Amino acid sequence: MSTMDRKTRTKERRYFPRVNYRATAELVSRTGRWPVQIVDLSFNGALVASPYNHQFGSDEDLTLYVFINSGDQIKMRGRLAHTKGKYLGIECKPSNVDNSTLLRRLLNEQTQKFRKS
Length: 117
What we know:
This protein is an alpha+beta fold. It has helices at residues 3-13, 97-116; strands at residues 19-29, 32-42, 45-49, 62-67, 73-84, 87-94.
């Protein structure tokens, strides 16, 4: 399969587009808590950068706390989807309606900023 075919297939599988967004966050598992940096974010997941060598199982529950500029935080629960070097792809969803609302508002704001630039 060509590189272009893989890129197209990946795009087609994504129902919720990812938005470039830089923020500090905290990743929590049953074995500890680690500071991470958000690279991009969507309603169903996040790509984070971490200097730590994580050894999460594919079925291990993870919680991601995204700290946003308003002083609020968005709590998302999920699991590790993939790793590549210092990057972790986390498949996760907001933990409740309030977190869903905050995330949707944040993603809309970031999308509007991108369209204006």
